[in-house]
Structure formats: C-alpha cells, structure tokens
Specification:
It comes from Desulfoluna limicola. Helices cover 10% and strands 40% of the residues. It contains 3 helices and 14 strands.
Length: 265
C-alpha cells in the first residue's frame, strides 16, 4: 500500500479517526513514526478548518503502536483570534497510548520580521545521482514506496564522525497534490544521521519531535523531488539531538524539525 493508499485508509471513527496498520508500514512492534503523526494530525484536522495552516507540531512517541490498528482523538485547547491550539492522543486498539501531539494552527498576520530560511542545497539533480535500491530485510519496509537519491554525507553505519547527510526524496505511485501530511511524512522518512556515526547495525527510536512548517505543500505533487538535509547537534549517553530541513521542489523551505532520538548502539 503506497503513501496515497495508507493516507486514504485513515477513516472517521466516532469523534476521531482510525487506521488498520498495513503490514508493510510496520517496523517490528510499531509503525513508521511519520504515519503515527499523520493519523494524529488527521484527528486534529477534524477540529480545525482546513484553511488554517499548521504552523507547529509537537509529537511525543510514548510507546509502540502494536501491529493491529491505531485510533486518534483530538480536542481544541484554545481558539484565539489568530492561533488555535489542538491536542491529540493516538491509541492502540487495546487502548494503550502510543503518542501525544500538540498542534498550533495559525492564520497569517502582518509583521516586519522577515528572514528567509536556509537556501536549498545546490546538489546535482536526482537524475545525475544514484537512486538507492530497496533491500528486503535491510531497508525499513515502508521505504519501498519512496525514492531516495543520496546527495552528500556518509550512509548509515559507515562509522564516520560527521553525523550529517542530505538527499532527494519523492513518492512512488500515481502523482497527487501534496499537502501538510506529506511534509510530515517526508521529514520522518529518513534514518537518523547518528547512524552514520556507527560502524555496525543498531536500531534508533525517536522520543520527541518538534516540527515547524513554513509551507502548506500545495502546488506540488508526490512525484516531484524534495530536498532533505539533517545533522546531529549533540549526542551523549545514548541520546541524540538532531535537526533537519526539508525544501519544496521549488526550493522554498518547507519545514524545520528537531528530534530527540535514542540510539541502541
């Protein structure tokens, strides 16, 4: 089930949403974290009008989703003149909490403060680079629905000290217009840059995620190539702080994310 299919499979459930987890989007006892966030965001969108852009999303991954299904419910914490705060919880079919989310949805407002985000990296086009193959049993299963072209930095488990890399990404399947859900998914679809600092395999798991959005995703399709760059800020005692950026196919900054990650190696 490609990214369109899995997004379309999110259905209304009572006053929230639910999703039966496709097997190919699972990672052991849990599912792809970006998908968990998208399900929580779908529940939030049930409380907020569509034309109010998502400005910030805070996610805490509390526990595994299991392999059956998840459901999410949301409620408005405060609705101001410009900004609406919404809280969501994602639960397993057994009622165990697996993630909490806090979303800030905000209308545009006049401001004299303007600073454009980092310029998109001037990499060679994806056609000039080698596309990474999907390797059954080695690659996370959901990556079979995405295309990756590495542009700079070491690959995972090369044992390099840099702790940073970047590349291009797009979705396989029928082209459809992108939106904020695609931005969320694409920003979490890459391995932690800390893994490139290891020379043997080790798992990593995101604890917390803060995502600032500067673009709605509209005006592009899932077949277009987006640029992604990430680096480790600090790492100690098995905990990693990392920062990432995503640029639209047109070169605009789409989002900045910070993740707190545990590395088991």
């Amino acid at each position: 089930m490609d990214i369109h299919g899995v997004f379309d499979a999110i259905s209304n459930h009572g006053n929230g949403v639910e999703l039966t987890l496709p097997e190919t989007w699972l990672q052991g006892r849990t599912t792809f974290g970006g998908l968990v966030a998208v399900v929580g965001l779908a529940a939030m969108r049930g409380q907020v009008q569509r034309d109010l852009p998502l400005r910030n999303l805070l996610v805490a991954f509390v526990g595994p989703t299991g392999t059956g299904g998840i459901r999410a419910q949301a409620r408005i914490l405060r609705q101001g003149k410009s900004v609406t705060h919404v809280q969501a919880e994602v639960l397993t079919n057994q009622g165990e909490i697996c993630a909490t989310l806090h979303g800030c949805f905000g209308a545009e407002r006049p401001s004299r403060v303007l600073k454009k985000g980092h310029t998109a990296p001037p990499w060679p086009s994806p056609e000039e680079l080698t596309e990474l193959p999907f390797m059954e049993g080695l690659s996370p299963s959901f990556t079979q629905y995405l295309r990756y072209c590495w542009a700079e930095g070491p690959y995972p488990f090369e044992g390099k000290p840099e702790g940073e890399y970047g590349g291009w990404i797009c979705c396989l399947g029928e082209p459809k217009e992108t939106d904020e859900s695609h931005i969320v998914a694409l920003m979490d679809a890459w391995p932690s840059p800390s893994l490139s600092m290891l020379n043997t395999f080790a798992p990593a798991s995101t604890l917390t995620w803060s995502l600032d959005l500067f673009h709605t995703g509209e005006g592009f399709t899932t077949a277009d190539w987006w640029r992604f760059k990430t680096h480790v800020d600090a790492a100690e005692n098995g905990y990693v702080s990392e920062e990432s950026r995503l640029w639209t196919p047109g070169g605009q900054l789409a989002g900045i994310s910070r993740q707190g990650v545990t590395v088991f190696g």
